[in-house]
Write a structure and sequence with these properties.
- The protein is an alpha/beta fold.
- It has one domain: Rossmann fold.
- 35% of the residues lie in helices and 27% in strands.
- The chain contains 9 helices and 10 strands.
- Helix 6 links the parallel strand 7 and strand 8.
- Helix 4 runs antiparallel to helix 5.
- The structure holds adenosine-5'-triphosphate (ATP).
- Adenosine-5'-triphosphate (ATP) binds next to strand 2 and helix 1.
Length: 233
């Protein structure tokens, strides 16, 4: 199976604060990976570095074989933990913005997702609830045919009933040729879609392991593992 992401010995410092401290991970194509850790462990920082929105202090990051830069930004679809939309936009403007910006934008997929997410094209984005705003961001990110999707807390504001359906949509709308890295604190709800998990603590990599291996070797799920590992936090 081919590798879509290679992170080697990455350090990131904000002044004296070490946000990432020698992190190395590899993600293969077709995998859905949970990037987990307590608050401030470095998850968003790692995503920003992979997306090319910040530079590592040292170390290397390669996406689909290329160093992070213009080329990799074309194949990485990033949904940050804050909305990407402008206050004047309606839902249709936000979608059009994404279409204009990215050549891999898939109109058919976007239309299907807008319907599935129960979004109204004519609604103003600044009038959307937190959950609806997240549905829009997810629609924008998943409507691209990217190689790597990075979702930072994608459904924290979505109600529990819709959450399950949206998770199913994530699995359905992403291509098996691509990979997803997703951060979340809603482990109980989301762990079922993970193939692997990466655990960060205070900027360091604690483990990268397949969920199946965790279940087989330790006899516990990801939610329980998380509670064990971060018990003292
Ligand atoms: N722009 C910045 N300037 C200074 N320090 C920062 C900056 N961004 C992040 N940090 C620090 O780096 C560390 C890692 O932050 P990061 O946002 O990556 O954590 P996180 O795991 O995503 O946290 P959370 O689960 O709360 O979203 C934290 O100590 C944070 O305060």
């Amino acid at each position: 199976m081919s590798v879509v992401l290679e992170v080697r010995d990455v350090h990131k410092k904000y002044w004296r604060k070490k946000a990432l401290d020698g992190v190395s991970i590899t993600v293969e194509r077709g995998k859905i990976v949970g990037l987990l850790g307590s608050n401030g462990s470095g998850k968003t920082t790692l995503m920003k570095l992979i997306a090319g929105l910040a530079q590592p202090s040292s170390g290397t990051i390669r996406v689909a074989g290329a160093s992070v830069g213009c080329e990799t930004k074309r194949v990485v679809s990033y949904m940050p933990d804050v909305p990407l939309t402008e206050s004047w936009m309606r839902v249709k403007d936000a979608i059009a913005f994404q279409r204009d910006f990215y050549t891999d934008f898939d109109d058919a997929k976007a239309s299907e997702m807008i319907e599935f997410m129960k979004l109204n094209k004519h609604d103003r984005v600044n009038g959307l609830s937190k959950g609806m705003q997240e549905r829009l961001q997810l629609t924008m990110a998943l409507s691209r045919n990217a190689s790597l999707y990075l979702f930072d807390e994608p459904i924290g504001g979505v109600d529990p009933v819709a959450r399950g359906k949206i998770l199913d949509a994530i699995v359905e709308y992403y291509s098996p040729e691509s990979s997803i890295i997703l951060t979340t604190h809603l482990l109980k709800d989301i762990e079922r879609i993970f193939d692997e998990v990466i655990l960060l603590k205070e900027g360091r990599l604690l483990m990268q392991e397949e969920v199946e291996t965790i279940r087989m070797r330790r006899g516990i799920g990801v939610d329980e593992l998380f509670k064990e590992v971060y018990a003292e936090c």
